[in-house]
Design goal:
144 residues; mainly beta; Trna Endonuclease, Chain: A, domain 1; six-stranded mixed β-sheet; three-stranded antiparallel β-sheet
């Protein structure tokens, strides 16, 4: 079932930016225009605090796998090098999404996997990636 309120080809930025504005975030920036400088997708401020958001969009149901994965290098960069008060991972599936605080929720494990380099920009070469993993007991699922 697909309840996602945006296209599978979208990263969900427009949807999340609208939600952030509705709850009072300001100075929201889609960092795509600074892709070589930033290691995350959106930044914004809420009550004077800087928040950054990394978005992952999967074209599957949330029960297809029992975990959430993120590139280890990107996780380390965001966790240890990016200056922000809050660092959040949004993981979108067809039926639900989850939110992981990257400063509080340490990955349970890591693994090297073979997968497409990227799906969003059409580079489907298979490469090995070092990933960090949160098991499904580390996060809660939310309805769109």
């Amino acid at each position: 079932m697909n309840n996602r309120p945006f296209s599978k080809d979208s990263e969900g930025k427009e949807w999340l930016i609208k939600k952030l504005k509705n709850i009072g975030f300001d100075h929201i920036v889609d960092t795509d225009v600074y892709a070589k400088t930033y290691h995350y997708d959106i930044e914004g401020y809420y009550k004077g605090k800087k928040w950054i958001f990394e978005l992952k969009n999967r074209d599957l149901s949330s029960d297809c796998y029992s975990d959430v994965m993120m590139n280890r290098k990107q996780y380390r960069t965001i966790r240890w090098e990016v200056e922000a008060d809050y660092k959040i991972l949004f993981y979108f599936w067809n039926d639900h999404y989850t939110v992981i605080d990257l400063q509080k929720n340490i990955p349970e494990s890591s693994e090297t996997i073979e997968c497409s380099r990227t799906k969003r920009i059409g580079d489907h070469r298979v490469i090995k990636k070092d990933m960090v993993i949160w098991n499904n007991d580390a996060y809660k699922l939310f309805d769109y």
